[in-house]
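Structure in, sequence out. Go:
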């Protein structure tokens, strides 16, 4: 039986690059698709971020967030009201903020100095915008390996979030607090209970449909372990799961049902009170993306690898700010060219409707340098 749950939400918007044609190389240094960025940002703010945050406030729901630097910059440009909503939530004492890479990049796997620089940039942005110094960390898309753990531990964070997988030794359940071989605290995502909301909530062919707050609280209560880690994209509420599905009513009712079941809604830093279950290790690099839960969503084909290698080879020739935006993981995610349900998700997010277009537009921009 479990009496504790931690809800963590990723908040990120990439600054999308516009369709950039070969004839523009050397003639046009306007690279961002800001008309589309503004349209998408305003839509999701109104459908998801603002109403979901209002529900958290009104129902006294504790939660933990990470907000990428690219999200905050676009909020400042396109929709400051969404930042006001988050500021109010964090001032209430209900929320915790995590640090991450400023540009939501893959820097942790290819450049330690760049990785540390972006973490520092993010920490400074959290302090300037919210007046908060985060104590814990989540890497882009929960990407983790032991070297990333070493860097994060040495910076001084208490805990890191990542995905539960059988590639960790000594971890047979996500419902405990662990440490890695660097001594860094670890919380592992319970992907079954997380995906019940983020992916299956409106699936009418799912045997558990419809998912009610009462049913969900019961599942949490009857799980074994110390704490259930529910980690997901914040856009689940209102964007990926439209308001017509009843997702907001579910969220509104969840706190009441948790109280009925004596379930505590905690923040990430509250997990420090639990005993460490074991020290775990892995020879792999882990993420929460796709069924492989590895790096293949960003480096799984030759286009992605070539695009990343070209970018890194030109880093000293590109303006520092632009170089940061070009490192955003979404740019490589759009280039995935697989099949099946994973590829359907890639195509859902791809503004260019083709991985090949994503590759050509990206590398065309790099030709300017």
């Amino acid at each position: 039986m479990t009496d504790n749950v931690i809800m963590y939400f990723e908040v990120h918007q990439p600054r999308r690059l516009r369709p950039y044609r070969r004839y523009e190389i050397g003639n046009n240094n306007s690279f961002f698709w800001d008309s589309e960025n503004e349209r998408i940002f305003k839509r999701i703010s109104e459908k998801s971020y603002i109403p979901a945050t209002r529900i958290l406030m009104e129902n006294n729901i504790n939660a933990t967030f990470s907000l990428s630097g690219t999200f905050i910059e676009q909020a400042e440009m396109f929709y400051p009201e969404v930042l006001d909503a988050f500021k109010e939530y964090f001032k209430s004492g209900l929320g915790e903020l995590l640090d991450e890479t400023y540009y939501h990049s893959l820097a942790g796997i290819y450049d330690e100095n760049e990785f540390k620089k972006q973490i520092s940039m993010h920490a400074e942005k959290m302090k300037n915008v919210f007046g908060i110094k985060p104590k814990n960390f989540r890497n882009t898309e929960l990407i983790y390996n032991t070297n990333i753990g070493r860097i994060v531990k040495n910076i001084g964070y208490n805990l890191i979030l990542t995905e539960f997988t059988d590639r960790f030794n000594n971890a047979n359940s996500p419902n405990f607090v662990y440490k890695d071989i660097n001594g860094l605290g670890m919380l592992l995502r319970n992907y079954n209970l997380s995906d019940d909301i983020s992916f299956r909530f409106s699936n009418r062919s799912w045997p558990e449909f419809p998912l009610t707050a009462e049913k969900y609280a019961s599942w949490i209560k009857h799980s074994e372990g110390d704490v259930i880690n529910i980690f997901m994209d914040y856009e689940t509420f209102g964007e990926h799961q439209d308001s017509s599905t009843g997702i907001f009513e579910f969220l509104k009712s969840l706190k009441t049902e948790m109280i009925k079941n004596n379930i505590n809604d905690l923040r990430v830093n509250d997990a420090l009170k639990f005993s460490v279950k074991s020290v775990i290790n892995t020879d792999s690099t882990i993420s929460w993306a796709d069924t492989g839960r590895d790096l293949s969503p960003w480096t799984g084909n030759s286009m992605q690898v070539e695009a990343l290698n070209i970018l890194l080879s030109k880093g000293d020739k590109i303006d520092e700010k632009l170089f940061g935006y070009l490192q955003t993981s979404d740019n490589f995610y759009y280039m995935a060219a697989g099949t099946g349900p994973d590829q359907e998700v890639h195509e859902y997010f791809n503004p260019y409707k083709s991985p090949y277009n994503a590759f050509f537009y990206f590398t065309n921009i790099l030709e300017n340098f």
